[in-house]
Each structure stands twice: as C-alpha cells, then as structure tokens.
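Continuing the series of single-chain predictions for the mutant panel. This is the parent chain; the variants come on the following pages.
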Amino acid sequence: VADMDIDIAAVMLPVDEDVFDILPFFEDRLNLVVSADHQLSGHEWVSIAELENYNFISFSEDYKIYEYIKGLCAEEGFTPNVTLKSNHVDLIFSVVSSGECVALMPESACHELGQNAVKFIKLHGAIPFYSLALIRRKDKALSKEGAAFMGFAKKLFNIESQAGVDSVLVS
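Parent structure:
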C-alpha cells in the first residue's frame, strides 16, 4: 500500500495516520500458551514479566506481531529467548505441547485451535490488546474494485462509516 502496488491491505496497527486512511475491524488480545503439564499450566493469569526465563516459539519477523511481542517483553526489561520461529500456528501449538517452549498467541487463534495438549493462560498487568485494520493511502484514488471491496468489508465486519474512508476517490 505504501508503494502504491495495491489499494488496500489488512494490517496490525499502528500505522502512519498521516499517510493512510485506517478502518479498524478487529481487536484481539494475547494469551500465553503452555503445555498441559507445564509449571505455569495451573495459573489462571500470568504477567509478561513472569516469562523472562522461558524459551519462546514465535511467529517470524515477517509478522508484525513478532515485534509487538518483543516490545511487550522489552517494557518488562527483558528480551524473549526465541528458540524457534514459525508462521504455522499448528506447528507452534505442536512445539508448545511438547513442553519445550511457551508462546504468546492471539486469543482468537487459541479458541479456533484449542487442543487438550496445551493450556491457554490470560495475561494481566498492562493487558496486551492489538487491533487489525484495513488501510489505504490517503493520496491515491481507490479503484472501482477497491471501493467494492471496502463496501464488502464494511458489511462483513459490521464497520461503521468513518470520515475520510468513505469519501474515497474512485478511479
């Protein structure tokens, strides 16, 4: 979108509000995922700070959530020891279920891929939420197809109209 190769993208916020029209459509939070027999599995809540000495499996640097998680850990004074990176949620769950690592995963993925071999634990403290949004460049006319997609997405995600986003130029 920034390079004007495509009209619209779904991204994790934040993005530059001076450059992009932003249409938030989903908010999620992170949960800790541990094996069912992990020493933290009996906890209902944990803090990010409690995870300092654990090995992590994480999404790769290709995903913005990787930097988000690193930032959350940095705010608590440590760098997570990421021993494995993967872009495959099933693999992440499989490695976690072996007891070798912990993972911070979107709550929505935890519900969709819930397994008996892992336990999902809520995070407390500064509860880490993040938002997803559709973005488009403010200075680029939106194609007819892009405008049609925005209309479809608004209906699909039940998004209210916003100034700027609705006053798009259609080329």
